Each structure stands twice: as structure tokens, then as C-alpha cells.
């Protein structure tokens, strides 16, 4: 990855919790580290193929001063969102904000926060087996598309499949999505759970009927194991209704645990 660094951009603004900070303002130092492929700009020698860091600095300066915010963590995250939205070629961003005049009545050099985000490729599985299944699936996809931190890349065909795990229920309508997002996996999980809740998902029994189910299947090639989130999804290799839609657009994606392509996993499952 190639990186552009804008270091210690000095901005006088009115951020802070105390009323005096909002009224009088103070100095902040902003550092941006942006990762993107510079090959096109480097070989064309054309500024339009790169990021004009003079314009970028002025945009950040104006945006930083546009409102008064209590927490510099909030300011930093809003800058992350602003840069990802404005500069689509950026794949990684680090925003550091220093607050050298922080009113804590103790000797210090500075107080600072740093927020790092990067775009990741996620594969999601979506299913419904209650009510108007197509409407629930479409609503879930439309909601994901409407979130500015998420870019929908690809959607599989729709598949009607038998219930898995608990079979005495209606058939499911299933599909898979590829999205790109700078949301952290844990934050994306909260987003998907909120969509499920808004669409009437109720959790009464394991593998029971549901209006909508949104699973995070893969996050790039990462392996994540926490109490709340397990990636890759632990049942991917056992579920044809997951593997079949994924093979519509990602047949050669390699499962980071089994080190096999999704095409191989589907073929093995079908041969059992």
C-alpha cells in the first residue's frame, strides 16, 4: 500500500466539552495518513489521477471548523467518514487529532486520539422464511445499500432452500452479498442485527423461523473468534444454501481455515 501523509495541520476550532472551549476555541493539530494505490498518478504525472493534498488540507480545515463538537473522538471519526466519502480511491485512513491546550490544569505536551479504518470485503448471507420473503430480503439489501459506510458490490441469485438444523418449518429464500465497508466487523454485526430487529426478527429458538437473517460469512481472509462474532461463519462448509449463492460470484475465494475454494467446499458437500 502507498501512503500520503499530511502532518500536524494546525486548525483553530471550538471543539470541547466545556463552555469556555466552545466560546473561546483552541488549537488542534490534525494528521492524516491515507493509503491508496499511487501507481496511476505516479506513471501519468497527472494530478487528476492522484489526491491534491493542498485541496484536501483546505477541505479538512473547513470541515473541522464547520461545527462545535464535544469529543475529539467524534471529530476524528467524522473526518474518517468525510475522507472515505470524498476520496473513493482511499483504502485506508488514519486520523490523529492533537489537543495541546486541553484544559486539565496539569503539565503535558498534548492529548491526542487516533482512529484507524480500512476498507474490507465482506460476504454476507441473507435468508427469510416468514411472510413475504422476497420483500424482507429486498428490504434488508436496500437498507444495507443506504448506509454510507457500506458499498454493495454483488448480489447472488435467489435460492429457495429447505430449512437447515430445524427442518419442521417453511422453506427459506436465500442469497449472498459482497459488500465493501470500512466498518469494523463488530460494528457491522451491530448494523446487521439492527436491520434484523427493524424487520421484525424475533429470536425464540435456535434455527427457528425468521423474517430475516443476516450472517457475516467472511471478512477478507481474516479469522475472528469472540463471544459475539465468529468469522468465518462456523457452518459455511456445511450449508449448501450458503455455498451455492456464494459460488455465484466467489467460487475461487479461499476459506481461511480449510484452505479450500468455495467451489471445492460446495463440490465436497454435494458429494456426501
UniProtKB/TrEMBL annotation:
Source domain of life: Bacteria
7,8-dihydro-6-hydroxymethylpterin-pyrophosphokinase domain mapped to chain residues: 206-217
Reactions accelerated catalytically: 6-hydroxymethyl-7,8-dihydropterin + ATP = (7,8-dihydropterin-6-yl)methyl diphosphate + AMP + H(+); 7,8-dihydroneopterin = 6-hydroxymethyl-7,8-dihydropterin + glycolaldehyde
EC number, as in UniProt: 4.1.2.25, 2.7.6.3
Pathway, per record: Cofactor biosynthesis; tetrahydrofolate biosynthesis; 2-amino-4-hydroxy-6-hydroxymethyl-7,8-dihydropteridine diphosphate from 7,8-dihydroneopterin triphosphate: step 4/4; Cofactor biosynthesis; tetrahydrofolate biosynthesis; 2-amino-4-hydroxy-6-hydroxymethyl-7,8-dihydropteridine diphosphate from 7,8-dihydroneopterin triphosphate: step 3/4
An example Gene Ontology biological process: folic acid biosynthetic process
Keywords, sorted A to Z: ATP-binding, Folate biosynthesis, Kinase, Lyase, Nucleotide-binding, Transferase
GO molecular function: 2-amino-4-hydroxy-6-hydroxymethyldihydropteridine diphosphokinase activity; ATP binding; dihydroneopterin aldolase activity; kinase activity
Role: Catalyzes the conversion of 7,8-dihydroneopterin to 6-hydroxymethyl-7,8-dihydropterin.
Family listed: Belongs to the DHNA family. In the N-terminal section; belongs to the DHNA family.
Protein known as: Bifunctional folate synthesis protein
Protein's organism: Finegoldia magna (Peptostreptococcus magnus)
Taxonomic lineage: Bacteria, Bacillati, Bacillota, Tissierellia, Tissierellales
